[in-house]
Specification:
729 residues; Maltoporin, Chain A; 22-stranded antiparallel barrel; five-stranded mixed beta sheet; 4 helices; 40 strands; globular
């Protein structure tokens, strides 16, 4: 049976079942009424596609629950990266470059799988558009090639939204912050009859000023604009053994919500004639400042419909998750970052994605297992225009480079089995296997245009039909060393699909793989402290990279790399008033034989980067949080919280040149949370990046103009939120 026939069969199965998961979308549940001396509440997660205590998961997993998200003001990946060890985030011109243990996205294909209530996000561009009214966030570190499949060789980030309730409840939150930012969020949840409940959440943020100042007279600042999200969830239980969840999500974002700034510039390094106009044009290297002409905007719309059926058949539970996602992404921007109109970009993508997952979950006295299938069908239509308004790169007149990729169709089908056998009351063995088959049908047409003469110069007209497949496995041994502690050892494999770079005319790049070994320890102490530790080693093969061959970028598989690391996380309730949490991550990464030409150091010729550190992988990451809670005279309780995150030097390119890196930095966030006695009123006074630390999260080099450009992390922002809750608590 070929891939298309298998996919059609899986589609029909999914339609017959219905699809998109109640168990997956369930919240981080609390253990029923913990004893008075128990200060730690048990957190239930679904990281392994079945409900488990977070302390029982045999792997590296961080969980941010609803309370932590609210008290720390964690709203997006900018904040999440400062709360999770070994996670780095970089805003990559509209994409979300999420990196875990040095493995990240490439060519807009994620290396870290992102999902909302079990619905997989195929492109990194959509990973930030629906982070609203969350129950928890689960961050799995390490390859997830068995349970999550393609493009999860770095790990997975699962956003779990709050579920509908059987009792009416809701809240309204309004806020105001620096940069003329106003926000409003509203949630209402309740029953519709005896067997149906709903939840509707909505928010809107308007930022009238940007935290990246635009120095071009009369032009508007960057990192401003408006965004809105709406999520509707319906949960029905037609019978005691059958449940249905329906979810609708719509997200919009408009305005210049991305930026680049100059980091270095040396016109003597420019190739292909360079751009002499840049030498005299106004530019700045100051943090949080840039020059961009008025054509700088974005318009993004994301829509998702998900359906889940779950049927308890007694001997097993059958679950189906079906989703249709549509994403329209339009960006126009000034890419020369000067007051001269040299390089403007116009980039439009239309992505339609259908996914279907079917899980059959069962358990006996000694065996828990899940048998599953996953299908993804994606159609991506992308058009990019580089508009050079002045003569550049040797052309005597204005020019355009037009890259058209009207066909980028992906069909991916996988089957997996994962099981855990309880060998003794203390010892468990888990094993899993997944088979993935990918088919890609691609066509792109690239050309140069001289508009004044109506001349078109084709330089690439190419179609590709590609087939890849991979079998990935997972083997884990776990042993309870005490009633409150366990150790585990694991071997897991990860797989990321290959692809075609739309702006090139080269052979496709192949998949990359990771073999990961990990030893870990998890424990609770005195019912007030949790500790997790993990040591790991990766054999990273055929990693995907953009290289310079001659003076042209070429996307290819460069070679091998190694990653070694140690992570320790600690959370402790010291007393009724004091709580501390912290994490330390140590990474030792190095490329194997990897020969590449740095256009910004062309005089060195082709360099072998063996032994150099991997990109986006600081050697040392430290997170520390301290919270103090006390009753106050005017009623209610006040929680003062300080969170600090330290990152050592981070390289963004492979040549171990300090000019390609961000030096060590520390970000401090401060929060003061007050809640009334009944919990109906709450306020949060916050200072995000309280010390106004300037640090770069993303950097790229351009040998064409002899420059480096970077994106800054958020500047300091002080603000206030007021929340009114009502209904069940």
């Amino acid at each position: 049976m070929n891939l298309n026939k298998k996919a059609r069969l899986l589609k029909r199965l999914g339609a017959a079942l219905a699809a998109a998961a109640f168990a997956v979308s369930g919240g981080a549940e609390e253990a029923a009424e913990p004893a008075e001396d128990d200060l730690i509440e048990e957190i239930i997660v679904t990281a392994n596609k079945r409900s488990q205590s977070v302390q029982d998961v045999a792997g590296s997993l961080s969980v941010l629950g609803a309370d932590a998200l609210g008290e720390q003001g964690i709203k997006d990946m900018y904040d999440i990266q400062l709360a999770v060890p070994s996670l780095h985030f970089g805003p990559q011109l509209g994409g979300q470059k999420i990196t875990i243990r040095s493995i990240s996205s490439f060519n807009r294909q994620p290396g870290v799988a992102v999902s909302l209530d079990g619905i997989y996000q195929s492109r990194s561009s959509t990973a930030h558009l629906y982070q609203l009214d969350l129950e928890r966030i689960e961050v799995l570190r390490g390859p997830q090639g068995t349970l999550y499949g393609r493009n999860s060789n770095g790990g997975a980030v699962n956003f779990i939204s709050a579920a509908p309730t059987r009792e009416p409840e809701g809240m309204v939150r309004v806020g105001y912050a620096q940069y003329d930012e106003t926000s409003i969020q509203a949630v209402y949840s309740g029953p519709i009859g005896d067997r149906v409940a709903f939840r509707i959440s909505a928010d809107r943020i308007d930022r009238g000023e940007g935290w990246v100042e635009n120095l071009v007279p009369g032009a508007k600042d960057l990192m401003r604009g408006e965004s809105g999200n709406v999520r509707l969830k319906l949960a029905a239980e037609p019978t005691e053994t059958f449940s249905v969840d329906l979810m609708y999500v719509r997200s919009t974002i408009k305005g210049p919500h991305e930026h680049l700034s100059w980091v270095t510039f040396d016109p003597a390094l420019a190739v292909a004639g360079g751009t002499p106009q840049l030498v005299t044009a106004a530019k700045t290297f100051e943090p949080f400042k840039t020059h961009v002409n008025p054509k700088n905007d974005s318009d993004r719309e994301f829509e998702l419909v998900g359906l889940t059926l779950e049927w308890d058949m007694g001997w097993a539970t059958l679950k189906s998750i079906t989703a249709q996602q549509d994403f329209d992404d339009f960006v126009e921007a000034d890419r020369d970052l000067t007051d001269v109109p040299l390089f403007d970009i116009w980039d439009e993508s239309i992505i339609d994605t259908f996914t279907q997952e079917i899980n059959l979950l069962g358990s006996t006295d000694r065996l828990d297992w899940v048998l599953g299938a996953f299908y993804l069908q994606e159609e991506w239509d992308r058009h990019i225009v580089f508009n050079n308004a002045l003569p550049v790169f040797g052309f005597p007149v204005p020019s355009q480079f037009v890259f058209t990729q009207p066909v980028m169709d992906t069909d991916s089908l996988s089957w997996f089995l994962d099981a855990t056998w309880e060998v003794t009351d203390r010892a468990r063995v888990s094993a899993g296997v997944r088979r993935t088959e990918d088919e890609i049908d691609e066509y792109h047409y690239n050309r140069g245009v001289l508009p004044l003469f109506n001349v078109t110069i084709p330089f690439c007209d190419k179609a590709e039909k590609l087939d890849w497949g991979a079998t990935t496995i997972r083997v884990v041994g776990q042993y309870d060393v005490s009633n409150d502690g366990n150790v585990y050892v694991s071997y897991t494999e990860g797989y990321k699909a290959g692809g075609v770079a739309p702006v090139e005319c080269n052979v496709p790049y192949q998949p990359e793989t990771v073999d990961a070994y990990e030893v870990g320890y998890k424990a609770t102490f005195g019912r007030s402290t949790t500790l997790t530790a993990a040591a790991f080693y990766y054999d990273y093969s055929d990693f995907q990279v953009s290289q310079i061959i001659g003076i042209s970028p070429v996307t290819r598989n460069a070679g091998d790399a190694e990653v070694r690391g140690l992570e320790v996380e600690l959370s402790s309730t010291l007393s009724e008033n004091w709580m501390v949490s912290g994490a330390v991550a140590l990474l030792d990464t190095e490329y194997g034989d990897f020969i590449n030409l740095d256009g910004l150091q062309a005089e060195l010729g082709f360099q072998n980067n063996k032994g150099n550190p991997l990109n986006n992988a600081p050697e040392t990451s430290i997170n520390l949080g301290i919270a103090y809670t006390t009753p106050v005279e005017w009623g209610g309780r006040l929680t003062l919280r300080a969170d600090a995150a330290y990152r050592s030097r981070t390289y963004f390119r492979e040549f171990k040149n300090k000019l390609d890196s961000q030096g060590a930095y520390t970000v401090i966030n401060l929060n003061a949370n007050w809640e009334s006695e009944e919990g109906t009123w709450a306020t949060r006074l916050f200072a995000r990046n309280a010390t106004d630390e300037d640090y770069i999260l993303y950097l790229l080099g351009s040998s064409g103009v002899g420059a480096r450009y970077g994106s800054w992390g958020p500047a300091r922002q002080v603000g206030l939120e007021v929340t009114r809750r009502f209904g069940a608590r």
